[in-house]
Design a protein that fits this description.
Helices cover 38% and strands 15% of the residues. With 320 residues, the chain is of the alpha/beta class. The protein folds into 2 domains: 5-96 and 285-319, Rossmann fold, CATH 3.40.50.720; 100-275, Rossmann fold. The protein has a 6-stranded parallel β-sheet. Strands 2-1-3-4-5 form a 5-stranded parallel β-sheet. Helix 4 (58-61) links the parallel strand 3 and strand 4 (69-73). The chain is globular and about 70 Å long. The structure holds 2-keto-D-gluconic acid. 2-keto-D-gluconic acid binds at residues 51-53, 73-76, 99, 278, 281. The site of 2-keto-D-gluconic acid has 10 residues, from loops.
Length: 320
């Protein structure tokens, strides 16, 4: 019996790819590299495998009459046209929960790195500049005010960690969460005006595009730091570069960018900025757990079993 055909729409992490290879024939981005071969292949594709950043437009889904799932290796799925997937009856799954700790850990790491200038200090020592004199003073993190934009699972995990540092927490999200003790702000600008560290951890996509704009950065102010572990699209990158260049804000810790893996060169030379390559979930333990869950979703769908972690939109559409 021939093995089911699966389309990988992005470069997959080896843990996920190897699991898929054990049961399926994986076609790696054939829709991009060989459209002619893809036209013949598309009617046979049973599963689509992607990453958090992968693009799965409606036009692609409409070419896959037999597809039974889009299984995303990541919690974010803003590149997937979920409305069309639902219309076509194709479930979308993701990997919530298993990466919460890692993303929250990296958010705190960036808070500490920008506040305490850890990356800059490391460069200073390596460059043999210690004998020349001290670094400028950093910004105390313990006891500072953290504002969290997006108070879902990961936002709450960041809040827990920040509380252990004696930080005060406030947040903005689509609606206030009655089970949380922290002050709620109706919008990012009013939250920013009361924050020393503004941490962005909201889903990407059209609804949050450029939520962090020039006005929010102005409200954050010359003593304020921006941390982004969400999606590059949430921040107006040009406005951020200007705000950093002009001292409108104090600094930034960025794990995500508008056009990854390209990072604007203006940011490379800014000492008040810490840059990481979209690595918030990149530990061996978590990537294994993500691969296990993404693979389990793929397998469940292809074997007609209940999905482990469908996206909320799919579950809501099914309930109607
Ligand atoms: C990526 C992510 O999926 O979970 C998300 O939403 O952005 C990441 O975990 C990961 O980098 C693989 O591409």
């Amino acid at each position: 019996m021939s093995r089911p055909d699966v389309l990988a729409v992005a470069k997959l992490h080896p843990f996920y790819r190897q699991a898929l290879d054990s049961l399926y024939t994986v076609h790696d981005r054939t829709h991009e590299t060989d459209p002619q071969a893809f036209a013949a292949l598309a009617p046979r594709i049973l599963g689509v495998a992607g990453t958090g950043e992968a693009l799965v437009p409606g036009s692609l889904l409409k070419q896959l009459p037999q597809a039974r799932v889009v299984s995303v290796f990541g919690v974010g799925y803003d590149g997937v046209d979920v409305a069309t997937a639902i219309e076509q009856g194709i479930p979308v799954t993701h990997t919530p929960g298993v990466l919460t700790d890692d993303v929250a850990d990296l958010a705190m790491g960036l808070v500490l790195a920008v506040g305490r200038q850890i990356a800059l200090a490391d460069q200073f020592v390596r460059a043999g500049r210690w004998p020349e004199g001290p670094l400028p003073l950093g910004r105390k993190v313990s006891g500072a005010r953290m504002g969290i934009v997006g108070m879902g699972r990961i936002g709450q995990a960041i809040a827990q960690r920040a509380q252990a540092f004696g930080m005060s927490i406030a947040y903005t999200s689509r609606s206030p969460k009655s089970d949380l003790p922290h002050p709620y702000f109706p919008d990012a600008a009013s939250l920013a005006s009361q924050s020393d560290f503004l941490v962005v951890i909201t889903p990407g996509g059209a609804g949050t595009r450029h939520l962090i704009n020039a006005q929010v950065l102005k409200a954050l102010g010359p003593q304020g730091f921006l941390i982004n572990v969400a999606r590059g699209s949430v921040v107006d990158e040009q406005a951020l570069i200007e705000a950093l260049a002009q001292g409108t804000i104090a600094g930034a810790g960025l794990d995500v960018f508008a056009d990854e893996p390209r990072v604007p060169s203006a940011l490379w030379t800014m000492p008040q900025v810490v840059l990481t390559p979209h690595m918030a979930s990149a530990t061996a333990q978590t990537r294994q757990a993500m691969a296990d869950l993404a693979f389990a979703n793929m397998r469940a769908a292809l074997e007609g079993q209940p999905l482990l972690t469908p996206v909320p939109e799919w579950t809501a559409a099914r309930a109607r």
